[in-house]
């Protein structure tokens, strides 16, 4: 299994054959390196084989978020993955809102400074003309 995983990861993606590739691979439990936890092996003493779905897609076909959702739906840990994605979305939304607030404050201050320079230049010009300079 590990050899097939390495082969799939290291072989260049041939877009002339399609934008995605999937392979099912089976082997003795623990031979893929995907299941490394000794506790998991002890809990599944009756299971002797593992089967992996090896999947890769061209980046134009799907982005990281959509692929994470698809993998989450077919994985055993789908609820945990959904929760992690939702937490990450919340964090990014809060960060975006905070950045928007700072942007508005910065824009407001910049506009006030710019208006100050414009009006002070106009007043200075008028004052010079008035004094005959």
Provide the fold topology.
Layout: H1 2-10, E1 20-28, H2 38-43, E2 49-57, H3 64-74, H4 78-131
Antiparallel strand pairs: 1-2
Helix pairs in contact: 3-4
Walk me through what this model shows.
By secondary structure, this protein is an alpha+beta fold. 60% of the residues lie in helices and 14% in strands. The protein contains four helices and two strands; from the N terminus they run H-E-H-E-H-H. Strands 1-2 form a two-stranded antiparallel sheet. Helix 3 (64-74) runs antiparallel to helix 4. The N and C termini lie far apart (88 Å).
Keywords:
alpha+beta; two-stranded antiparallel sheet; 4 helices; elongated; 2 strands; 133 residues; 60% helix
Summarize, please.
This protein has 133 residues and is α+β, with helices and mostly antiparallel strands. The chain contains four helices and two strands, in the order H-E-H-E-H-H. The mean pLDDT is 76.
